[in-house]
Amino acid sequence: MSESVVLDVEVNSPIERVWHALTDSATLSKWMLFKTNDFLPVVGHTFQFRDAPGWDGSVDCEVLEVDAPHRLAYRWATAGQGGVPHTTVVTWTLSATAQGITRLHLEQRGFRSDAKQELAGAKYGWRSMLEQLQQLLSEA
User: Fold this and answer.
1) Residue 86's domain is classified under what CATH number?
2) How confident is the model at residue 140 (pLDDT cuts 50, 70, 90)?
3) Is it the case that residue 139 has pLDDT exceeding 90?
Protein backbone atom coordinates (compact mmCIF):
# COMPACT_ATOMS: atom_id res chain seq x y z
CA MET A 1 0.00 0.00 0.00
CA SER A 2 1.34 3.44 -0.88
CA GLU A 3 1.30 6.62 1.16
CA SER A 4 0.63 10.23 0.15
CA VAL A 5 1.36 13.79 1.18
CA VAL A 6 -1.81 15.90 0.96
CA LEU A 7 -1.78 19.64 1.69
CA ASP A 8 -4.44 22.30 1.15
CA VAL A 9 -3.84 26.04 1.29
CA GLU A 10 -5.74 29.16 0.36
CA VAL A 11 -3.71 31.72 -1.55
CA ASN A 12 -4.85 35.34 -1.58
CA SER A 13 -4.18 35.68 -5.29
CA PRO A 14 -6.14 35.09 -8.52
CA ILE A 15 -6.00 31.59 -9.97
CA GLU A 16 -4.12 32.79 -13.07
CA ARG A 17 -1.26 34.16 -10.93
CA VAL A 18 -1.06 30.97 -8.90
CA TRP A 19 -1.07 28.89 -12.10
CA HIS A 20 1.76 31.04 -13.48
CA ALA A 21 3.79 30.46 -10.30
CA LEU A 22 3.34 26.69 -10.72
CA THR A 23 4.13 26.56 -14.43
CA ASP A 24 6.71 29.27 -15.19
CA SER A 25 10.27 27.98 -14.87
CA ALA A 26 11.74 31.27 -13.60
CA THR A 27 8.97 31.75 -11.04
CA LEU A 28 9.30 28.13 -9.82
CA SER A 29 12.94 28.88 -9.01
CA LYS A 30 11.85 31.73 -6.72
CA TRP A 31 9.73 29.64 -4.35
CA MET A 32 10.75 26.01 -4.73
CA LEU A 33 13.69 24.51 -2.87
CA PHE A 34 15.30 23.78 -6.24
CA LYS A 35 16.91 26.83 -7.81
CA THR A 36 17.29 25.35 -11.31
CA ASN A 37 14.72 23.63 -13.52
CA ASP A 38 13.81 23.21 -17.17
CA PHE A 39 10.07 22.87 -16.66
CA LEU A 40 7.57 23.44 -19.46
CA PRO A 41 3.81 22.88 -18.98
CA VAL A 42 3.57 20.42 -21.88
CA VAL A 43 2.34 16.84 -21.45
CA GLY A 44 5.23 14.45 -22.09
CA HIS A 45 7.93 17.04 -21.39
CA THR A 46 10.74 15.62 -19.25
CA PHE A 47 12.57 17.98 -16.93
CA GLN A 48 14.68 18.17 -13.80
CA PHE A 49 14.63 20.09 -10.55
CA ARG A 50 18.25 20.75 -9.45
CA ASP A 51 20.43 22.83 -7.16
CA ALA A 52 18.70 22.42 -3.81
CA PRO A 53 20.74 23.89 -0.95
CA GLY A 54 22.44 21.11 0.98
CA TRP A 55 21.54 18.38 -1.50
CA ASP A 56 23.59 17.39 -4.55
CA GLY A 57 20.86 15.28 -6.19
CA SER A 58 18.24 16.06 -8.78
CA VAL A 59 14.62 15.15 -9.34
CA ASP A 60 13.74 13.66 -12.74
CA CYS A 61 10.21 14.55 -13.80
CA GLU A 62 7.75 14.14 -16.65
CA VAL A 63 4.62 16.22 -17.16
CA LEU A 64 1.58 13.92 -17.07
CA GLU A 65 -1.36 16.34 -17.14
CA VAL A 66 -1.96 20.02 -17.91
CA ASP A 67 -5.43 21.54 -17.61
CA ALA A 68 -4.77 25.28 -17.28
CA PRO A 69 -5.45 26.84 -14.82
CA HIS A 70 -7.00 24.00 -12.83
CA ARG A 71 -4.79 20.92 -12.76
CA LEU A 72 -1.13 19.99 -13.23
CA ALA A 73 0.52 16.63 -12.60
CA TYR A 74 4.05 15.33 -13.05
CA ARG A 75 6.07 12.23 -12.24
CA TRP A 76 8.74 12.87 -9.57
CA ALA A 77 11.66 10.40 -9.45
CA THR A 78 14.67 10.46 -7.13
CA ALA A 79 17.49 8.10 -6.20
CA GLY A 80 15.70 7.53 -2.88
CA GLN A 81 17.17 6.56 0.47
CA GLY A 82 19.81 3.86 0.45
CA GLY A 83 20.02 4.01 -3.35
CA VAL A 84 16.52 2.58 -3.77
CA PRO A 85 14.89 4.58 -6.61
CA HIS A 86 11.65 6.27 -5.62
CA THR A 87 8.95 7.53 -8.00
CA THR A 88 5.82 9.43 -7.02
CA VAL A 89 3.27 11.64 -8.76
CA VAL A 90 2.75 15.28 -7.78
CA THR A 91 -0.69 16.70 -8.59
CA TRP A 92 -1.75 20.31 -8.14
CA THR A 93 -5.47 21.16 -8.23
CA LEU A 94 -6.57 24.80 -8.23
CA SER A 95 -10.01 26.34 -7.76
CA ALA A 96 -11.03 29.98 -7.54
CA THR A 97 -13.45 31.50 -5.06
CA ALA A 98 -15.75 34.46 -5.74
CA GLN A 99 -13.54 36.53 -3.42
CA GLY A 100 -10.46 36.11 -5.65
CA ILE A 101 -8.80 33.53 -3.40
CA THR A 102 -7.31 30.41 -4.93
CA ARG A 103 -7.70 27.08 -3.19
CA LEU A 104 -4.60 25.02 -3.88
CA HIS A 105 -4.61 21.26 -3.28
CA LEU A 106 -1.31 19.39 -3.46
CA GLU A 107 -1.05 15.62 -3.47
CA GLN A 108 2.17 13.66 -3.85
CA ARG A 109 1.19 10.01 -4.04
CA GLY A 110 3.00 6.74 -4.44
CA PHE A 111 5.39 6.69 -1.48
CA ARG A 112 6.33 3.14 -0.54
CA SER A 113 5.03 2.23 2.92
CA ASP A 114 8.63 1.63 4.08
CA ALA A 115 9.83 5.03 2.77
CA LYS A 116 9.22 6.91 6.02
CA GLN A 117 12.19 9.26 5.56
CA GLU A 118 11.11 10.27 2.04
CA LEU A 119 7.53 10.83 3.22
CA ALA A 120 8.58 12.96 6.19
CA GLY A 121 11.00 14.93 4.01
CA ALA A 122 8.30 15.57 1.41
CA LYS A 123 5.83 16.82 4.03
CA TYR A 124 8.39 19.17 5.50
CA GLY A 125 9.63 20.34 2.10
CA TRP A 126 6.21 20.99 0.59
CA ARG A 127 5.02 22.90 3.69
CA SER A 128 8.09 25.11 3.50
CA MET A 129 7.78 25.63 -0.25
CA LEU A 130 4.05 26.45 0.00
CA GLU A 131 4.90 29.13 2.58
CA GLN A 132 7.45 30.54 0.13
CA LEU A 133 4.85 30.47 -2.65
CA GLN A 134 2.32 32.34 -0.51
CA GLN A 135 4.94 34.92 0.43
CA LEU A 136 5.99 35.40 -3.20
CA LEU A 137 2.39 35.90 -4.36
CA SER A 138 1.64 38.34 -1.54
CA GLU A 139 4.54 40.60 -2.55
CA ALA A 140 3.26 41.72 -5.93
Assistant:
1) 3.30.530.20
2) low
3) no
By residue range, what is the domain housing residue 106? Answer: 3-139
Amino acid at 103: R
Name the average pLDDT for the chain. Answer: 94
Q: How many domains would you assign to the chain?
A: 1
SS3 string, 55-118, reads ECCCEEEEEEEEECCCEEEEEEEECCHHHCCEEEEEEEEEEECCCCCEEEEEEEEEECCCCHHH
Is residue 132's pLDDT more than 70?
Answer: yes
| Rounded distance between C-alpha atoms, residue 58 and residue 70, angstroms | 27
Look at strands 59-67 and 71-78 and give their pairing: antiparallel
CB neighbours of 19 closer than 8 A, spacing ≥ 6?
A: 68, 69, 72, 94
